[in-house]
Amino acid sequence: MTRSAVRAAAADRPDPGSYPEIHPPVRRRPDGAPARTLLFLHGGNVANWMWDPQVKGFPDYRVFTPHLPGFGARAAEDWAGLESAADDVAAFVADQVEEGGVHVVGLSLGGVVALRLMARHPELVDSALVSGVPARGIDAAARQLARLQVRLWGREWFWRFQAGAFGIPPDDRRLFADHGITIRAENARRMMAEVYAGGLPAGLGSYAGPVLAVAGSREPPVVRRSFPDIRAALPQADFRLAPAMHHQWSIEDPLLFNSMVRMWVERGRAHPRLLPA
């Protein structure tokens, strides 16, 4: 490839921080009802661009995909903690929604933040769907591996390797790597220390709305082992496994993920392809 072709290819790649946070509905609902609002909270190795397949799959919804502090367009900001991130999301929702709440979908870090949002601002959450939440914490060996990963944080080959390990489709691996190297290592270290320590937020039991908790059958088993802890705090929750799915399965199988979200939000039921946990 010539130098001019390389420059042109780089120019065509989307900026990892440029993905919008607010997506108005572009199609009316068949029943004529007002558009519902979905709030998608992204994972810790990605940014809000990960939700593009979901935005495209919900043209009859108002969709929010906020940047969490320290990620995407906010990569220069400091990570101030899970509670602070939840309060940040709450302020975003309060600015955009005049009355009522939103249907929250959080994956990985986004799922952990979603639990804090439910505990601290339950009035903003009409329903919650969380996937890939390691509420029991990560063992010592995994934490040591995470510390090694932070040392490699700024190297592109590391992010390409991570993309394969997470099951990121080939078309999205370039964007995944481009974004990964924008995350400040100090932010990553602080965020992972909190998430990997595990635990559930105080006051989570005050949230009385519907909850669906999901684990990919091929993601680290700590996620499904965390289900009893979440059930103790949220006895109304439903727990399911996504067959053959890895951690980042909203990108891995967006059709199933979108169908799951729609069925949960509109019917309050788990998708039939999900397995009981």
Automatic annotation (TrEMBL):
Span list, region Disordered: 1-30
Q: Which organism is it from?
A: Arthrobacter halodurans
AB hydrolase-1 domain sequence ranges:
38-255
Q: Which PANTHER family match?
A: AB HYDROLASE SUPERFAMILY PROTEIN YCLE, MONOACYLGLYCEROL LIPASE
**Keywords annotated in UniProt:** Hydrolase
State if Hydrolase is listed as a keyword.
yes
- Coiled-coil annotation reads none
The entry's protein name is Alpha/beta fold hydrolase
**rRNA processing is among the record's keywords:** no
What GO molecular function annotations does the UniProt record carry, in alphabetical order? Answer: hydrolase activity
Extract the InterPro entries matched here: AB_hydrolase_1, AB_hydrolase_fold, AB_hydrolase_sf
- Source superkingdom: Bacteria
